[in-house]
Amino acid sequence: MKTLLTLIAAGALTLAAKNQDLGKPLTLKQPMNVGTVVSQPEPLIGKTVQVKGKVTEVCTMAGCWMALVDPETSQTLRIKVNDGEIVFPKEAIGKLALAEGTLKKMVLTKEQTIARMKHEAEETGRKFDPAKITSGMTIYQINGTGARLLD
């Protein structure tokens, strides 16, 4: 009987351990869908938000960002951290994740957009043609403080 209880307890710990916490503990109780944040970002700028989505990309150089997509709307939001604060593992791609931090709005000039897109192309191994950038862009991203990868 003691052995059976030990096996049950170990199994429960194994199941609980499948979620991987990264960075600081999450503080908000209820996540928002990525699509909700992306479709109405303005009231949330500068506020702490928690989002839930599927990881589609991770920075291959330093693990300093991950992209989450809303499976229902296909809208994407990037979670960015300072290099080394959190390292998002490449194995996170395909998993559901919760991420928390401050929503930030960045209005980029054409030159800033070209520099950013070139850097992203280098990080992801994609080809980049700066001639295709004709104007600046506005980006919304979460400056991440913590995340949880769900299994």
**What CATH architecture do you see?**
Beta Barrel
| Rounded average pLDDT | 88
Sheet-strand content, in percent, reads 35-45%
Which class in CATH terms?
Mainly Beta
Question: What is the string of SSEs from the N terminus onward?
Answer: HEEHEEEEHE
Structural class: alpha+beta
Helical stretch tally: 3
Unreliable stretches: 3-16
CATH superfamily membership: Nucleic acid-binding proteins
CATH topology: OB fold (Dihydrolipoamide Acetyltransferase, E2P)
Number of domains: 1
The largest sheet is: 5 strands, mixed, barrel
State the end-to-end CA separation.
Answer: 30 Å
Query: Percent helix among the residues?
Result: 10-25%
Radius of gyration: 18 Å
* Strand runs, count: 7
Global outline: globular
Strand sequence of the main sheet, in spatial order?
Answer: 3-4-5-7-6
